[in-house]
């Protein structure tokens, strides 16, 4: 059942999200990359839809998030925007389109906002990308930060294991969260870090902190749609709760269809003109 009728939809904004943190209401966030899925996610009542650069993995079949381009992200984001009436839509700026050059960061963010109609952008990193974050914010574009296991840096990490277990990395992460808040970010994603550290971050900043593999003491949770639906079966980290087994459901449907075609059972007379 839809949680809203098209006439009376109250859109989620950065302000709504801030209020949710203040009153202790958890924020729900999920990825989506296309019109049909985004329509269902929005109607279900998701607070934030992330057009993640995980599209590089689950939509395009790349091993990492690095290959996806700005044009491809805008294509995915535009489709999501056309479907959504209520959710707040955040779009990842892809690898190579914001690091090290704040003018390029601003250009990338403006292209995403102008060409897709999304509501905010997300970038990975802390102090290293401070200038880019500030420059994007100076144009009035809301920015979501992303710290911890930042997939665009996978070749630097060399592994997908939990980040910031050591004191030095944990201290830097906490400092980075404060820097992102001071810059004016409206929220921060924390990926795959100890729950105790995530709790400390969520208590140390006034903006919403959304976790993925960061435990329960944060202001909201995000998952990748294909993982939580059980479409991707090969990726099962400890933090992932699988809410459906769509791979089996789809496999059954496809096999039934193949069988019906081969047996000349489909189409029937009723299904013909
Ligand atoms: O791209 C993505 O899906 C993400 C989430 C893992 C937070 O950044």
TrEMBL record:
> What HAMAP family does this protein map onto?
PanB
Q: Which GO terms describe its molecular function?
A: 3-methyl-2-oxobutanoate hydroxymethyltransferase activity; magnesium ion binding; methyltransferase activity
Q: What is the lineage of its organism?
A: Bacteria, Pseudomonadati, Bacteroidota, Cytophagia, Cytophagales
Q: Which family does it belong to?
A: Belongs to the PanB family.
* Keyword Cytoplasm in record: yes
- Role of this protein: Catalyzes the reversible reaction in which hydroxymethyl group from 5,10-methylenetetrahydrofolate is transferred onto alpha-ketoisovalerate to form ketopantoate.
Question: Which Pfam families does the record cross-reference, listed alphabetically?
Answer: Pantoate_transf
Cofactor binding summary note: Binds 1 Mg(2+) ion per subunit.
Instruction: Name it.
Output: 3-methyl-2-oxobutanoate hydroxymethyltransferase
Report the gene name: panB
What EC numbers are recorded for this enzyme? Answer: 2.1.2.11
User: Where primarily located?
Assistant: cytoplasm
Sequence positions that bind Mg(2+) = 53, 92, 124
Tell me the subunit arrangement.
Homodecamer; pentamer of dimers.
